[in-house]
Structure formats: structure tokens, C-alpha cells
Amino acid sequence: MSMEIKTQRWVEQQVQWFIGLCKETGMKVTPQRVAIYRELAATDEHPSAEAIFNKIKTYFPNVSLTTVYRTLETFEGRGVISVVNTLYNAARWDAKTEQHNHLVCVSCKKVEDLYDDTSVNLELDNKKGFRVLGYNLLINGICKECQEMRS
Ligand SMILES: [Zn+2]
Ligand SMILES: [Zn+2]
Predict the structure, then answer these.
(1) Which ranges of the chain have pLDDT less than 50?
(2) Ligand 1: distance of its center to the CA of 142 in Å?
(3) Please, are residues 47 and 70 in contact by the beta-carbon 8 Å criterion?
(4) Which CATH number fits domain 8-94: 3.40.80.10, 1.25.40.10, 1.10.10.10, 1.10.3720.10?
(5) What's the per-residue H, E or C state across 105-136?
(6) Which ligand is nearest to the CA of 111?
(7) Could you tell me the distance, in angstroms and rounded to a whole number, from the CA of residue 87 to the centre of ligand 1?
(8) Ligand 1 center–CA 47 separation, angstroms
(9) Most buried residue among 16, 58, 95, 125 by CB atoms closer than 10 A?
(10) pLDDT at residue 115, as a whole number
């Protein structure tokens, strides 16, 4: 499910998984919560709470940004979604909870997934005597589109 284009069917499967998990863990399933999860599952853009809010409010006009933010925090606390901490103030959210790394463009603030771990050699085992179980890298740089605009 990593880099492939997300089909509507895949998104709905994720939503069904989410609803099942809510029921299992005693988390309330509300139409709003399902909508927030669906918006996140449908994108690879690692949206901020505000970006999700802007989509949700077109069909849930009474929802507040605070509610969206708290809902995302609740999901994250239950391990349903993950948070990408960027260098910037706004947390960015991710429906993908398996281990993967991120490329962050310092210019347009785009966050891209990076699943290629093989090129990264941390050598922490040797240097610090620390047994590495996994890592989540945030690699900062300038994306291809921004580089092309500058040149
Ligand atoms: Zn960029
Ligand atoms: Zn990601």
C-alpha cells in the first residue's frame, strides 16, 4: 500500500478497518470521525489539521478546526494514524502507520513518503552500542518542482 496510487476501493477498505478498530477499542464512531479518517486515508500529502478541516467543513459546516485537531490527536494516541513532525509549526498527519521516512521540502512544505531504507546506513550499532530497532527519518531539502522554479 505504500507508493501505489490510492484507489477509492482501497480507501474504503481502510475506512472499514478504521471503523472495526474503533469498535474493538471502544472509540466512538461518528460520521465526523469517519470523514476525518477518510480524508486522511485518501491522500499522500500528509495534510495539516487545517487542510483536513478545509475539506471537512464543505460537508460538515459545523465542525471546528479544534475538533479536527483533537480528533487527529485521539487517532494518533490510539495508533490509528501517525504524525509527521516537520520543522514547521503545523503537525502533518499520515494514515500510514507502518515505518517509513519522509522528505520535507523547506520551500513549499511538501511532505513525501520515502520507503527506500536501503540507501540509509546509520551505523548506530557500531558507533553508540545502540541496537537499532527502527527509525523514522525526516530529510529536509528542496523538492524537484521548487528547484525547477528557482533555476
Ligand atoms: Zn517544494
Ligand atoms: Zn508518510
Answers:
(1) 1-3
(2) 5
(3) no
(4) 1.10.10.10
(5) ECCCCCEEEECCCCCCCCCHHHHHCCCCCCCC
(6) 2
(7) 14
(8) 15
(9) 95
(10) 84
